[in-house]
Amino acid sequence: MRAAAFTDLVGPEGVRVVDQPDPEPARGEAVVDVEACSINRHDLWILEGDSAMVDADDLPFVSGLDVAGTVREAAPDVTGVEPGDRVVLCPNETCGRCRFCREGPENMCERFSLYHGGLAERARVTADRLVALPDGVDTTTAAALPTAYMTAYRMLRRADVTTGDRVFVPGATGGVGVAAVQLCDALGIETVGTSRSAAKLDRVREVGLDRGIESADTDEIEAAIDEPVDAVVNHLGGEYSNLGQSVLRRGGTMVVCGRTAGGTSEFDVADLFLGHKRIVGSTMGTQSDLERLVAFVEDGRLDPVVDETYPLAETGAAFAAMQERESVGKLVVVS
Ligand SMILES: NC(=O)c1ccc[n+]([C@@H]2O[C@H](COP(=O)([O-])OP(=O)(O)OC[C@H]3O[C@@H](n4cnc5c(N)ncnc54)[C@H](OP(=O)(O)O)[C@@H]3O)[C@@H](O)[C@H]2O)c1
Ligand SMILES: [Zn+2]
């Protein structure tokens, strides 16, 4: 089979289509004919050599978490899926033994890791991590869901927001950002988002953004937010954390899942305790979150934004578009 492998950790030009042996399912596993796999900034970190998870010794490395397709083969002990089933993968890898695996939520597993291998024609996966796709949900749309939408959904749950609240989404045009905006819109929550691009903000307005601030200057953004927000979906980190804390209302919650704009942030301690604010970390979501998201798509409440699809041979171009910050929503590699 063909795979779009990272052969050099130098950015998009390090992606090559290589031939690899066809995968065989081991106990508890299935092999999926991959029809679509969305990319995430997580894959780009790896490709740019900025992830502790993959180094030169691991090359060629096949990334890709968000797999959707059709089951080709299942190991004899697998009972939950069979060849021909249309599925999307929950990329969570958990130990099944720690207290979070036993009591939930599973995404807090003490040995939590992520599946990689979807940027290929076939993927060998844990069968129990496959979520069935209803007829009305196509595989390109489904592939947009796992990492970005599951993470945004869990962040909103952690922020405990409800209809009528206001949420600030700095960086509202990417995978997690657009997902947060659309989920808020579906829940009747108002959103304020930012981007350095007016054109990209216009497109996010079309899918539910209430107010867009075109700026990359955190002081300017802070000045533009005249009314404090109930929660912040912060996938940028760096100085956006200070900004998020500043615009948070008394008792509000900022949920942090990423570090695109910087791996360290400073906090105004007095503002934190005097304002009774909460800052919480969050990673991915649970498989039941993903099941719910699939149901939201099926019943028409959610229509994930896929900006562009790329054939497997053009996976490098998909990463270049992400690196250049050209896209809105998700980029999906299709076979
Ligand atoms: N912990 C988790 O489980 C988890 C899960 C998913 C994602 N994440 C993290 O969340 C972040 C977003 O992931 P993603 O896949 O949604 O990425 P993405 O699609 O590439 O995000 C693009 C968004 O980020 C903004 N952006 C990019 N670089 C920026 C910079 N240097 N300064 C300010 N804004 C910048 C873009 O703003 P413009 O519109 O101005 O270009 C755009 O709104 C990443 O850090 C990722 O690792 C974490
Ligand atoms: Zn565990």
Automatic annotation (TrEMBL):
Pfam families, alphabetized: ADH_N, ADH_zinc_N
GO MF term list: adenyl nucleotide binding; anion binding; oxidoreductase activity, acting on the CH-OH group of donors, NAD or NADP as acceptor
Q: SMART domains from the entry?
A: PKS_ER (SM00829)
Q: Where is the Enoyl reductase (ER) domain?
A: 11-333
Q: Which Gene3D superfamilies match?
A: Medium-chain alcohol dehydrogenases, catalytic domain (3.90.180.10)
- Keywords recorded for this protein, A-Z: NADP
Highest taxon of source: Archaea
Write out the GO biological process terms: small molecule metabolic process
Query: Does Ion transport show up as a keyword for this record?
Result: no
The protein's name:
Zinc-binding dehydrogenase
The species this protein belongs to is: Halosimplex rubrum
Q: What is the lineage of its organism?
A: Archaea, Methanobacteriati, Methanobacteriota, Stenosarchaea group, Halobacteria
